[in-house]
Fold:
Amino acid sequence: MKQLHPIMFAGTGSDVGKSIVAAAFCRIFKQDGYQPAPFKAQNMALNSYATPEGLEIGRAQAVQAEAAGIACHTDMNPLLLKPQSDHTSQVILNGKPVGNKHAYDYWRRQGAGDIDFRAEVCKAFDRLAARYNPIVMEGAGSISEINLRATDLVNLPMARHAKADVILVGDIDRGGVFASVYGSIALQTPEDKALIKGIIINKFRGDMRLFEEGRRMLEEICGVPVLGVIPYFKDIHIEEEDSVALAQKSFQLQQDKVNIAVIMLQHLSNYTDFDALEQDARVHLFYTNNVEDIQKADIIILPGTKSTLHDLYELRRNGCAQAIVKAYREGTSVLGICGGYQLMGIEVCDPDHVEGDIERLPGLGLLPVTTTMSGEKLTRQVRCEYGEGYEIHMGETKPFGDAEASPMLYLHDGRADGYRVNEKCMGTYVHGILDNAAFVDELLKPFAEKFSGDATSFDYQAYKEEQYNKLADHVRRYVDMDRIYQILSSTACQ
Structure:
């Protein structure tokens, strides 16, 4: 196939749809016979994933790799920041933690010390570009944060290194799209402005003909072609990078479905664990930290958390801990995943202050296990009797006192994982366990009378493939792909 330039989807701001657009192009290029790979130099997210090598990257790049039909790799997201508070983040470089950084130190003195982050992300891109064609790059936030230009690793400085063609994505749904697109371009240096080869307007609602004049005016004032106007969609489901919309997912109980409450922790992480359940026709899933809602659920799931002890303290303070225990005693199933598994035990101990000042807190007492936090993070993909998943956690959990081991599952290497009291009370360290139909069928079995007899297991992998293809079709319909291929094939000086 012809060698294409790298393409970067940069944004006028956060949440304009860069990740989804990049995923769409990963699938489009794959469909057209290329071998694309995603790349985002630096990501900030609590939603992460384990590569086949057992290293950690942002979930968004794992999704984009899946859309491209390839295994994910740390070179696709060499730098991942996992927020630990409003001011500090754990820094993951090439898949491994290298310490914690205060936001001021990171943004003002980036590269000071023994690690040159810019050199590291550039080397990761170069390795990736030697193996794939084209590289589908994603920017972060807004490209017009000129106060951070000197330390920006992910937007136009990265595009310069990659010699990428930049497509600016603007969100018309939030309003002010003319100002945001024009301002984003106008604030660039002449060198960076020359990299911007096109504009995509995203999340359009209404009659497309009403924007024809606006499209012409935008091209005129920006001096850059509008390559597409993509309508807002609700019928295509791609895993989300951000958890902002979780609390908006409906609580209203449904009598003919199994109602599953995911506890809305303050430091909830890896919320894509529940995407498969959301699409299962037998299930109604919602997020809550309301004690009355918790009492009405058929199944309660305690999700992963970036700060187990802080969230355990908060669950006790707001009454959720007591509500969960009461619901279980009255017949509700309770499942804990990763940090949620730790919360379900007798105690969580942190003698070395890995998470903070709290050295010990009593857990919910639903599982006879004890967890001791440690500074070493375990990250790996796993297989078990139900299917596949991955682990990303700190801390070791074992039976409390003289309690006997009662594993929830067994991993492919013979190790036992988790703890099972009975079919309605269990916990595991395995993220992605709910993507496996065999386990979901077992979880729902006690409530089988609630859904019709013809309800069947849900094939999440087949569903995701269908969604990537639907997304690619949608974007093809509204974007000038011929023009984009011309831009990516141009021999003009990059």
About this structure: Residues 460-478 form the longest helix (19 residues). The chain has a mean pLDDT of 91. The longest strand covers residues 369-384.
